Description:
alpha/beta
Amino acid sequence: MLTKHWGSTLIGKVDLVMWTKNGAETLPLVLKRISDVIPNEFVNKRIIVDDRSTDDTREIAKSAGWDVVLNEGKGISDGANTALKHVTSEHFISFEQDILLAPEWWQKVPKHLSDPKVAVASGLRLSNQPIALRKIQEYALERFQGRERDIGPFPSGRTLDNTIYKTRVIRQIRGFPKLSISAGIDNILALQIHRNQLEWKVDYTVKSTHLRMGLRDELAHYYWYGTCSDMLEHLLSKRNVAMRPMILRLFFSPLRGLHIGIKKKAPQAVYIYPLIRFVGLKGMFDGRKRKSHAPLFKAPLMNENRISG
């Protein structure tokens, strides 16, 4: 049933889900923003799946009116699927514990699901600090905007942290991808959606904020993602990441950083962009050195049956 609100077409009542682990520092602000952005009359359930936090995460969630359940496994993949078991609405929205939802998210993002071909919709998320990193992310996303059909199912900006889903579709593809790593779940889910001839719509006008601790924290994240890159590329294309293009990008990164710095009026991009390229490449090299032969999947990647309707 479609409901009119604030001039937007929105889709009935929704369930809100989040997976947490030691999120006490950001959770009060994050939960308050969700309540401010999504009107209570459109919320069916609020469910937090906690991964055995040792801080006040569960108490904060309960005091904010969220139901708290224990992650049946470990990490984001299991947390997302545990949350899915508790969903009873036709549509649900997932958040992460450090995402400050854009004020216009509710008016803009859910309406994309009124298109029968769209199974998932989300906005962007940009780091709050350092400002130059946010500008680098904006620059990268601006290059993707309008080119979604040219680059297939993986345009930048698809994440699980400010995302609405058609519940039926996610269940018919056997839930969220069951990976033994927390990286790339969004990419594999996008592939599943694409293979079922459906779409994941990214609204580039909606920019939520990723609450980060600073440049050191961000570089550690890029390094970690680099260590996972070969595994993810193999899952997506049965190949390892081609190293030569990555090395060339690092070689030319000072020039690209200078270009970004001038275009986005962010002088720090001159050295931050090369640093990102360097730590990402180092992560890839280190990841190959300690590559594990343990299976990545706990369950099959794809449901062989096509989604009907």
